[in-house]
Amino acid sequence: MPPRTTPTERQKRLGIELRKMRMAAGVSTDYAARLLGIDRTKISNIESGVRVISPDRLRTLATNYACTDERYVEALVAVATERKRGWWEEFRGTLPAGLLDIAELEWHAKRVRTSQVMHLPGLLQTEEYARAIFGGVLPPLPRLQVELHVAHRMQRQQVFDRDEPLEYVGYIHEAALRMLFGGKKVMLEQLNHLLLMSERENLVLRVVPVETGAFPGAGHATLYAEGPVPQLDTVQLDSAGGPCFLDVMSQLAQYNAHLEWMERAALSVEQSRDFIRTIKSDL
Questions:
Q1: DSSP structure string for 104-156
Q2: Tens digits of per-residue pLDDT, 57-114?
Q3: Any idea what DSSP says for residue 165?
């Protein structure tokens, strides 16, 4: 199979994990290349996500790297065997690749936890609310781009309607509930949608009131996607230059601690629903 020119974040992650495994074993790319009977440059390409690796070759590397964590290895094999194009590929070439990587991350996650401060979670936004978000960026997006961004955001939400709905926990700061993106009518519709979605068994929404005061990660929107094994967890952060993906264990621990703080500080599910209803009545 020819090399990829633009590997996705998920494909890069597979290569990153193989490199971590090799480095932990203390072996060189030359050693890995001899194991597989290929040129050493192909090992570098595999570890950068540019070149695919077969399940058999992956298991060969894992065995010779003395990796005994079978669940971890099989989780990597599952990534290596993926060939089906996801729905997000429809947008490749028309939207930034990072947005497609977010959709792919959510689709394959075991569970997603998010914390939002200034706007509501993308997976829970109404069409008009999302349109107001994308209509307010600088430099302004052309109308067609706004509509493509909105369509992509709406399609991301199908993770809740598939045969095995995504498990989701969202921590929303009160400030995000009071920001009138799109005006009062749009916000009323958005708050009603939040309340409706909060009734789903696979979905938990918790509000952090402003009276809580300072909190870790203030100002950052955080998405923590749990993989099939902890080693494959991923944190996604928003930035002006596009989404940022983190996978270093110390970084994962830091953001996991942030979300655990939110868990302790947030109102209960029922209290959160009542809080949202109160904000609705104030509009």
A1: HHHHH-SEEEEEESSS--GGG--HHHHHHHHTT-SSPPPHHHHHHHHHHHHHH
A2: 999 999 999 999 999 999 999 999 998 899 999 999 999 999 999 999 999 999 999 9
A3: P
